[in-house]
Design goal:
253 residues; mainly alpha
Amino acid sequence: MERESDRQPVQLKLGPIDWTAKGQPLRLVFLSLAMLAPWFWVWLGLHILKDYRLTILMYEVLGCGLPILLIRNKPLPPLWPFRFKRRWIFSGAIGVNLIILGVFWQTNSFNMDWEWFYQRMQTTHLFINTEFWLLALCIVLLNPFFEEMFWRGIIYQELKDYTTPLKANLISSFFFGAWHWVVLQAYCTPFWALWLTVAVMLGGILFAYTYEKSGTLASAVMLHATGADLPMVYVVYSCVTQAGQWMHQNPFM
């Protein structure tokens, strides 16, 4: 028979609810919203504000930087040291560059409709000038860090609390690639917008695998910068230049 002295009073602890604690439903909601947020910021920048510079700024600061502060539930992953085999990173970067640039050259610049592309350039103020090169420098040096910290260091890591590493990789990579479609369909033909989006998703899978194998973000950032963002800058530069040349040769189009 239970004695009166053995009974423990029930104590109610009042205080703020940790909505980011593992298992809380709202934590998964926050993760879902964070993965969808880039769609909104990029759509707002390109289709409402119609300025590629503001689009980049909103994506980096509001799409990546702000969620890192709001939904982080554990220490940020280490950036250094560079633990993955360097030759794998450099070989992968060179291989991806050859594929991207090879397809770009062989398909006549992704079969662009130059008149339409030139109009999009004018609408979003995409020109080759000093500002373009400054933003290109930021894309190659800063964008890989912000994106890897957000998509792999936060989203991928948090999703692993709900599912297996493989499924977390596939889910995070799908959303990582999917928002790029908003940009690509604004400048490319529908066919290339679709397939380039798939290519970005595959790149996300590779970045997450590299991060998982190394335990730090350095390798993923290096592969992202040299294998994705660097050739992208060249492709954009080449398309803008070719569109300008085409319109110069067809001034009445």
